[in-house]
Amino acid sequence: MIRTLLAEDMHLVRGALVALLAYEEDIEVVAEVDRGDRVVTTACDVQPDVAVLDVGLPGKDGLEAAGELHETLPDCGVLILTGVGTPGLLRRALDAHVRGFMAKDAQPGQLADAIRRVACGERVIDSEIAIAAMSSPDAPLTARELDVIGAAAEGASVSEIAASLFLSKGTVRNYLHRSTAKLGARSRIDAIRIARESGWI
C-alpha cells in the first residue's frame, strides 16, 4: 500500500479526494490536514510514502511545507496540487525538492497515477506548466536587484536590506525603484508579485 498524507484546506475538496483515492486498491490515505503548518508533524507521526499538498494552504503554503518535509523525511515524495500553475511556482516547487506538480483540474485517474509514480521516485510534472516554465523569459533584473527585491519579498525593511547587503539605504531605494520600473510594475508589491510568479525570486 502507498501510504498517503493529504493536505487541503477546503473540506469539500479534501473529502472528494479522499473518496476518490478510496477506490484505489494500492493507495491508502493515512492522514488528512487542513493547514500547511501541520504537515511535517503529522507526517512524522504517520510516516507516509507520499504527501499530496495543496499549494495554497493556510499557516504555511504547500511549497514551504514541502521544503521542510524534505528536510525532515527525505524519503517521503511530495506531489503539489495547484489551481493556477505558473512557471514561478514550478521553479519554487523544484527548489523544494517536490517530485510531482499537477493542476487540480487534472482527470481523476491522473492523480492516482501521479501518486504511484511519485512513490516510485519518479518526477511527475504537468506538461503545460513545464512548457510555460521553459519558455518564460530570463529576469531583466541584475543579480543585485534580485537580491534586494528578494529581501523585500521576505518582508525586510529598507534599513534591514541595507544592513544585510552592506548597502546604503539610498542605494536600496534606488534598486527597488529601478526594479519596479524594469518590470513595468505599479508598485513595489506588484514588482515582487511579478518576480515571484516568473520564478526569479
TrEMBL record:
SMART domains: HTH_LUXR, REC. Residues 134-199 form the HTH luxR-type domain. The lineage of its organism: Bacteria, Bacillati, Actinomycetota, Actinomycetes, Streptosporangiales. PROSITE patterns: HTH_LUXR_1 (PS00622), HTH_LUXR_2 (PS50043), RESPONSE_REGULATORY (PS50110). It comes from the Bacteria. This is Response regulator transcription factor. The modification 4-aspartylphosphate is found at D54. Keywords: DNA-binding, Phosphoprotein. Residues 3-119 form the Response regulatory domain. Pfam families: GerE, Response_reg.
